[in-house]
Amino acid sequence: MSILLVLIKRNIKLFFKDKGMFFTSLITPAILLVLYATFLGNVYRDSFTSNLPDTVKLSEGITEGLVSGQLISSILAVSCITVAFCSNFLMVQDKANGTIKDLKISPVKSATLSMSYYIATLVSTLIICFVATGVCLLYAAIVEWYMSLADVFLLFFDILLLVFLGTALSSIINFFLSTQGQISAVSAIISAGYGFICGAYMPISSFSEGLQKIVSFLPGTYGTSLIRNHAMRGVFAEMQNQGIPAQVVESMKNSLDCNLYFFENPVDISTMYAILIATIVVLIGIYILLNAFAKDKS
Amino acid sequence: MKNIIQIDHLNKSFGKVKAVQDLSFRVKEGELFAFLGVNGAGKSTTINIMCGQLSKDSGNILIDEHDLDKDIDFVKRELGVVFQSSVLDAALSVYDNLESRAALYGITKTAFQERLAELAKLLEFEDLLKRGVGKLSGGQRRRIDIARALFHKPKILILDEPTTGLDPQTRKNLWNVISNLRKNENMTVFLTTHYMEEAAEADYVVIIDGGKISAEGTPLELKNTYTGDYITIYGVNEDAIKELGKEYEHIRDAYRLFVPNTKTATELIIKHPSLFYDYEITKGKMDDVFLAVTGKTLMGGREK
Fold it and tell me: Which of B51, B55, B88 shows the shortest C-beta gap to A105?
């Protein structure tokens, strides 16, 4: 057990000490922040107010609450995946620079090494994402606070699940990589691509119908939606309290990906959790099988 | 002395390339064993198979009387490896590096602290423990590599070109440490090197070329078999040297004759005693052996 702990400590330390790897993991959330600060925030503000019927008027607080909810849910949804990938690149770096040879000439079990990468990635990503969640909540409190204690708790739970998903997914993909060039390629694809497909830059509801259908097959989509639901539930509740018709609120939830549809069938919150948890279990199973297969092969 | 490494009929191919072909040799306990060959000769493949990093196609390997196929964990505990280039974590401190590597052998807490103190004293790196490995000089980093390889007290230390790129003084210091380890702990050293003067110090040498053994023996046996002797004669003129009827060359203040062996040199001295007032007889060098065996030379890490 102490062997595993020391290896986990080594992997976590390496991630935080390798400034290149650490800052690369924060590129996508940083880009999102810049986009919101420069124009996305205003685009959302305008769309929230201009698309409403003339009879409905949103208070400034509600509008800001929606924008901040959209911002923080986007940042957090993206971070859980991109940070996990970057943190888990250590597994590939160890192969690329030959360190894995040094680890494997010892009698340590391959399963212990694989587990150390998985747990270290999980811990590093959780540290960063929980700190990011704290900062986001602080920002939301300063702008306009609508969340209940249950929302905050569930938000942290969503982050936890999404981090598990990101870690399992990155473990499987990184398993097949072995060079610095491959790290750069996958890093670029994940950083640029994931923000888009999870609807961080533009809501999934604004995608074409075909793309929406494809995205509905990706489990991460439901993780993002869970975060959005818990980051913005309080704002929607307040909108209803202020007498805004339920139909308008529902339409807004649709446009902000709080409501998701799988081939026109609405996916409720508990189903989203079920999809996410099942996917995590399957991915971890695949990772274990990959390691077992690799061991047999060697 | 028992055989601590016993390799029989080892074969390994990568596709159509036969990296190792029917390789068999023995390494005696406590000896300095030199494993020589140009790049691509099959040295690293053999070492990787010995360390359990690579599977073999056929053949048997016994390390300290344990079959590699059956007792891989035991074998791994018997081996300490210093790789050609350092594979420690450059971003971490010396302490953190050694802590994580020691843990791989189950050495943690007090056992780790005790062994660390021993090695830090032996290899003189007490003042480097908090320094990042990436910030160390080549010689300092090599000392830490050796400490990492020795942490679990292996019986066999594999040194894969350990001194390549190091300055002469650092090389000398490292060899002093390794010699002391051999003397004090009866450690077997399995060396690959491109420096023939290091190979000349070995107890036994195996030269491989194209995955096969081209020559093996003690340095003396190899020199006697594959090279001749040199007689350097001082204070004589060239006409006198010509009369000896041997191949010679003029060096700054002497003439150097090449003779096939020491017996011939002795006969020459007896026959022409007047010429041999000031002279020396030297054996051929390991470079000459290597050149004679493989047709190639090794120059400080580069193949020619």
Answer: B51
CA distance, residue B48 to nearest chain A CA (Å): 9
CA-angle at B261, arms to B257 and B262, nearest 5°: 90
Q: Report the distance separating Cα B188 and Cα B150, nearest Å.
A: 12
Please give the model's pTM, rounded to 2 decimal places. Answer: 0.85
Strand duo B79-82 + B66-67: pairing? unpaired
Instruction: Give the three-class secondary structure for B224.
Output: helix
Sheet of B248-251, strand order? B248-251, B254-259, B229-234, B278-283
Instruction: Point out the residue among B53, B77, B108 whose CB comes nearest to the CB of A104.
Output: B53
Q: Give contacts of A106 with chain B, Cβ < 8 Å.
A: 76, 101, 104-105, 152
For residues A70 and A43, give the distance between their C-alpha atoms in angstroms, rounded to a whole number: 12
For chain B positions 139-168, those within 8 Å of chain A (CB to CB) are 148, 152
pLDDT digits (tens, 9 = 90+) for B14-66: 998 999 999 999 999 999 999 998 888 899 899 999 999 899 999 999 999 99
B44: which chain A residues are within 8 Å (Cβ-Cβ)? none
Q: Which residues of chain B have pLDDT under 50?
A: 300-304
Q: Which residue of B has its CA nearest to A15?
A: B91
Residue-wise burial string across B112-133, b where 16 or more C-beta atoms lie within 10 A, e elsewhere: beebbeebbebbebeebeeebb
Residues 6+ apart with CB under 8 A from B223: B283, B284, B285, B286, B288, B289
Domain boundaries of chain A, sorted by first residue: 2-297
* Listed residue (B99, B105, B174, B103) closest to B142, CA to CA: B174
Q: Is B251 at the interface with chain A, CB within 8 A? A: no
The Cα B27–Cα B219 span in angstroms is 15
Instruction: Give all domains of chain B, ordered by start, each with its CATH number.
Output: 3-222 (3.40.50.300), 228-283 (3.30.70)
As to burial, measured by CB atoms within 10 angstroms (0-12 exposed, 13-18 middle, 19+ buried), residue B231 is buried
CA distance B88 to B107: 17
Of the partner residues A6, A17, A103, the one whose CB lies closest to the CB of residue B91: A17
pLDDT confidence tier of residue A296, bands split at 50, 70 and 90? low
Q: How many CA atoms lie within 13 A of B112 on its CB side?
A: 19
d(CA B205, CA B210): 17
Note whether B83 contacts A7, CB cutoff 8 Å: no
Nearest CA among B277, B271, B241 for reference residue B257? B241
**C-beta separation of A118 from A165 below 8 A:** no
User: A19 is written with which tokens?
Assistant: 């400034």
